What we know:
The complex is a heterodimer of chains A (238) and B (506).
Chain A: H1 2-27, H2 43-68, H3 71-76, H4 81-112, H5 114-118, H6 124-147, H7 159-167, H8 181-196, E1 220-221
Helix pairs in contact in A: 1-8, 2-4, 4-6, 6-8
Chain B: E1 3-12, H1 21-30, E2 43-47, H2 59-62, E3 66-68, E4 74-76, H3 81-86, H4 97-100, E5 104-106, H5 108-113, E6 125-127, H6 150-153, H7 158-167, E7 181-185, H8 194-198, E8 204-207, E9 213-215, H9 225-229, E10 235-238, E11 243-246, H10 251-254, H11 261-264, E12 271-279, H12 280-287, H13 295-302, E13 303-304, H14 309-317, H15 322-329, H16 332-339, E14 344-345, E15 356-359, H17 363-371, H18 379-388, H19 390-400, H20 405-426, H21 433-438, H22 443-455, H23 458-461, H24 467-478
Parallel strand pairs in B: 1-15
Antiparallel strand pairs in B: 1-12, 2-7, 3-4, 5-6, 8-9, 10-11, 12-13, 14-15
Amino acid sequence: xxxxxxxxxxxxVLVLLVGGLVRRGRxxxxxxxxxxxxxxxxxxxxxxxxxxxxxxxxxxxxxxxGLLVPRALTDAIGVRDHTYHLIAVSTGxxxxxxxxxxxxVLVYRxxxxxxxxxxxxxxxxxxxxxxxxxxxxxxxxxxLNSAGAAGDYNYREGVSVWFRSLFTLRPDYGxxxxxxxxxxxxxxLGFALIALVPYCRLIHMVTAPVQYLFRPYVVYRRRAPGGQxxxxxxxxxx
Amino acid sequence: xxxxxxxxxxxxxxxCIGCHTCSVTCKQAWTNRRGTEYVWFNNVETxxxxxxxxxxxxxxxxKGGWERTRSGRLRLRxxxxxxxxxxxxxxxxxxxxDDYYEPWTYEYKNLIDAPAGDDMPVARPxxxxxxxxxxxxxxxxxxxxxxxxxxxxxxxxxLVEKVREQVGEKIRFEFEQSFMFYLPRICEHCLNPACVxxxxxxxxxxxxxxxxxxxxQERCRGWRMCVSSCPYKKVYFNHATGKAEKCTLxxxxxxxxxxxxxxxxxxxxxxxxGVMLYDADKVTxxxxxxxxxxxxxxxxxxxLDPRDPAVEAAARASGISDDWLEAARRSPVxxxxxxxxxxxxxxxxxxxxxxxxxxxxxxxxxxxxxxxGHDGEDAGNLFGAIEGLRIxxxxxxxxxxxxxTYPVEAVLRRMAAMRVHMRARNLGxxxxxxxxxxxxxxxxxxxxxxxxxxxxKYEDRYVVPTxxxxxxxxxxxxxxxxAACPVGAEPGRPVLLNLAPTRRTV
Lengths: 238, 506
C-alpha cells in the first residue's frame, strides 16, 4: 500500500501532468485560457481573486522552501528549528488564510451570481472540491502539527526527505508510513489536483505571462505564409 | 524612412443616415455566436450620447490609451508593465456587462406553444446570459438612438461634460434646439495600438503587410488587458470561449480585394477604404508630441506621399509591392486625409494613432441655419454659422481634434464651399471662384472632392489591393521550383509537389 501511494502514484501524477500539458500544448492551445468571469461580476472578484492568487503564490513558494531545502542546510547557516518553524508557520498561515478567504469569496460568487454560475465549466466542481479540500487539509495539518497533536512529528525529516527522494527515482516510501493522517490526505489531494491541472482551467497557471516584462510594446507579425512556422502536417516538402 | 502600408478607412459623417445596416451585417458575419451576444465589432452611436459601452470616451474611468510621461515618453494610461502584471488577477478598469448591456432574446416559442386561453400569449424577454426572464429592460444597444431619452441620457455624454466645462454653456436637449449626428465605429487598427501593447501574452499583433490588428486565438489567455486598454473599447471578451475578439477589418475579404462587410453594405455610401503609407520611424515620435493639439498634424506628417519618388524607392526596398504602391496612389483615403484634408482622426488625444478617420458632419450647421429661416446653402450664411455655432464645433473638436476648433472649422468651411460651388453648378450659374479660393482650393479640386464625397462611385470608394499578388511575388522569390522533375525522383522517396507554401493555414 505504501509502495503504491508513495512510490508509484507520484510518477503516475507526473505522467498525467506532463502528458496532459503536452497534449494541450499541441492540440488545444485554443482551450488554454483563464476563463475569466469578470465580465459578469467585478466587485467580489476584485476582493477574492487577488487574495487567492497572491496567497497561493506565497503558499507555493512556502511549499518549495519546505520541501526542497534540507534541514542540514538551515542548520548549517545557523537557523534553529524553533526560529524556522516560527517563520514558516507565521508567513504560511497568513498566506494560507488569505488564499482560503479568497477562494471562499470566489466560490460564494460562483454559486450566487447567475451569470458566473452559468459560466462554470464541467471540470470546475471537481477542481474546486480538490482545491478546497487540499487547502483545508493543509491548514489542518499545520494547525495540528504546531499544536503538538501529532506528537513531535517533523515533516522536514519525513515528508520532505521522501519528496526529495522522488527525484532520485528511488523513492523512500517507507518514510511516509509514520506521517500523520492529515499530511497523508493533504498530499493525496494535492497529487490529484496536480494531475488535474492540464485538464481543467488551472492550466492557465503554466502560461503566466512573464515575457511581457521583456518584449517590445507593439507586436508585429507577418501574414502567413512565411511569417509563422508551418503547422504540423503542413511543413514544406523537401 | 521606413515605409509601411496600412489599409485605412474614412467615414463621411455627413452622409451617415444611422440605419445600422453596417452593424447588422457585421454582426451576422462575425458575432452571432454564443459568447458574443453583446459584441458589436461595428456599432453606430447617436451623438451627443453615451455610446457603447456607456461612457466609453471617459478615460478617467477606463484608463484606455496612452499618456505622455513628464520625461516625454509614452506609457499606457493604466500603468507600466509591472503595474499591469500586478493587476492581472482582477483588472480594475474592465467594463462589466452592465456597461455594455445584458443581451436578451424573446420567448418566441411561447407564441405558438402556449395552450389555448383567453389571453394572447406573449414573448417575454429572456436574458441570454443567465437564462432568466427580464422584467424591465434597462439598457440596450442604441438605447439612446436618435437622441431618444436625450434629456436624461445625453448630459452624461463625457464630451458634453467637457464642452460644458470649457464653453461654460449647456448643450440644450430640447427638441428643435439640439444638434445630432451619427458616429459608426469599428476598430481603429491604430499605428500605435494600446491593446497590442497591453497584451501580456503577446497574442494581439499588427500585421506587417496591411496593418490590420488581430487576436491570435491560440495565444490569447484571457487576461483582458486589451479590453480595458483600448480607449475605443473595441476589443471584446468572449465569455464563452474566454478569449478576446475584435474587428478583423474583414481580412478574408480585404485580402482578396473586397471591401469590408460594413463598407460593402453601407447604404449611405459613406465609407472609404484604401492604402495609406506611413513612416514607421515617425510613429512613436508623433504619438508623443507635447501638446495634444499637435497630435493630428503630427500624425498627418507621418503619412508618406506615394507619388514622391523617394517614398516609392524606400517602399520598394522595404518590400511593398508595385500593386500596393499603385493602390496607394489611387487611394481615396489618402485624398480625403492628405490631399483635401477633410478627414480627421477619432480622439487623437488617446495617442494610439487611429487609422479610421472621419469627415465631420456639416449637417448640424446647415440644419441650424435652415431652422432659423435662412438659406442653408448660402456661402455667407454657412461660413457665418460655422463661426457662430460654437457648440457643435466645440463638440466636434472634442471628438476629432483633441479640442482644437481650428481644424474642424477649416474642414467644415471646405465642405460648405463644396456645397456652395456645386449648387451654382447645378443651377447652371458660374461658381464664384472666390468661394473655392477662400478655402485654398480650386474649383476643379472642389468638383473632384464632390465626385469623391457625394457621387462616391463604388470603385472610387474602395481601392483595395489583393494579398495574392504580393504572395505570388514572394513565393516566386523564396521558393524556386525544384529543378528536377518530381516524377523522376529515386524510388522509395515519396513524390511530393512543391505546394506547401501556397496553402495558407486556416
